[in-house]
Amino acid sequence: EEKLEKSLFDHLTENDITIIDHIEDWSKALHLCSQVLIGKNVINTAYCEEIENSIHLYGAHFILRNSMAIPHAGEKAGVLGSGMHVLYIKDGVIFPDNLKVRMIFFIASKEKELLMRINAFSNDLNFYDVFDQKIKEGRCLAAYLKNWRKGERDD
Fold it and tell me: Taking CA atoms, which of 9, 69, 74, 150 is between 20 and 30 Å from 56?
């Protein structure tokens, strides 16, 4: 798991991060993320459909502390490669069971061990304040996330 997590973050660029103020609902948020990975030939449309089906059956089990989520599905559900898209919704979006999410780490991987631990982000109550400040400063968000993941903070 650690190896996969590092590799997905190592390949993260500014084009892999979308920042929006508001989105209508969780389904639209997932589709926005999936369209980016479809465009990169990382997944096909079945992947997002599988995540949505899973949410309807089991709930949004991939939501972490601090309003973060890691939606994902299995390799056989339309994964063509490995990739991640980060969606930051400033106002948040509500998932089933009234669970609010502000940041989505939408991942896909052909590796068997898919789940990532993003505890450094989900445990830090100041994360969004610092992230918002980086946006205002015009800083490279991909570099910030990579460094944060490695334990190197520059706030």
Answer: 9
- Any idea what DSSP says for residue 94? E
Cβ proximity of 32 and 17 under 8 Å = no
Burial of residue 110 (CB within 10 Å: 0-12, 13-18, 19+) is exposed
To the nearest 10°, report the CA torsion of 92, 95, 118, 16.
-60
What's the pTM?
0.86
User: Please, what is the Cα angle at 54 between 91 and 149, to 5 degrees?
Assistant: 55
Cβ partners under 8 Å of residue 5, min gap 6: 116, 117, 118, 149
Averaged pLDDT score across all residues of the chain: 85
Residues near 152 by beta carbon (within 8 Å), at least 6 away in sequence: none
